[in-house]
């Protein structure tokens, strides 16, 4: 059973001289059923993505190529995770402020989410997140 807190999750890895293989299945390696997949690519040097939290959405982020940092904030403390391998990823629960930064050239961020896109689920005001967390 995976605890619903931010954590790096190692994925299965089939090493093969023909090329390696990893995979993710609903509710197996990650604690949710995948409703949506998106990816972030062609990020110019120095740019930051994210800068928001979600009321309900959970995500799992993998650096399929290259590297970047995911910075999570729970309203009190910041946690920084370097993603730079395609055989592990970061589980991000709801109600964590999250930014993605320090993208390397040609990095590719794969994001799996447990809900369809909904702009209303975004928390874009850090003070609101803090208030919700500390209520
Ligand atoms: P956003 O989540 O704000 O990007 P980031 O947090 O990485 O900076 O998304 C940017 C735009 O892309 C947003 O205006 C709407 C669109 N979008 C979708 O239509 N569907 C999606 O699944 C996502 C993630 C974004």
Fold blueprint:
Elements: E1 7-10, E2 13-14, E3 21-22, E4 36-40, E5 49-54, E6 59-65, E7 68-73, E8 78-83, E9 88-92, E10 97-101, E11 108-113, E12 122-123, H1 126-134
Antiparallel strand pairs: 1-9, 2-3, 4-11, 5-10, 5-12, 6-9, 6-11, 7-8, 7-10
The structure holds thymidine-5'-diphosphate (TYD).
Structural commentary:
The protein is mainly β and 135 residues long. A hairpin with a 4-residue loop joins β7 and β8 (78-83). The chain has a single domain, classed as Jelly Rolls, CATH 2.60.120. It is globular and about 55 Å long. It has 1 helix and 12 strands, in the order ββββββββββββα. The structure holds thymidine-5'-diphosphate. Thymidine-5'-diphosphate (TYD) binds at residues 36, 38, 40, 49-50, 52, 117.
Give me a quick take on this structure.
With 135 residues, this protein is mainly beta.
The gross shape turns out to be globular
- Helix share of residues? under 10%
Quickly give the structural class: mainly beta
Named CATH topology: Jelly Rolls
**How many helix segments?**
1
Low-confidence stretches: none
Q: End-to-end distance, in Å?
A: 28 Å
Mean pLDDT: 96
Query: What is the strand content?
Result: 35-45%
CATH architecture field: Sandwich
Relevant terms:
135 residues; Jelly Rolls; binds thymidine-5'-diphosphate; five-stranded antiparallel β-sheet; 1 helix; mainly beta; 12 strands; globular; single chain
């Amino acid at each position: 059973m995976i605890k619903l807190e931010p954590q790096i999750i190692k994925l299965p890895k089939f090493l093969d001289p023909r090329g390696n293989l990893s995979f993710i299945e609903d509710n197996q390696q990650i604690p949710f059923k995948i409703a949506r997949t998106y990816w972030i690519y062609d990020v110019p040097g120095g740019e930051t993505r994210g800068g928001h939290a979600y009321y309900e959405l959970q995500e799992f982020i993998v650096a399929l190529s290259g590297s970047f940092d995911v910075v999570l904030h729970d309203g009190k403390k910041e946690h920084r995770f370097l993603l730079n391998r395609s055989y592990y990823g970061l589980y991000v629960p709801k109600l964590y402020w999250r930014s993605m930064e320090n993208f390397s050239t040609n990095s590719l961020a794969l994001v799996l989410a447990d809900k369809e896109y909904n702009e209303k689920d975004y928390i874009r005001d850090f003070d609101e997140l803090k208030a919700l967390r500390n209520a």
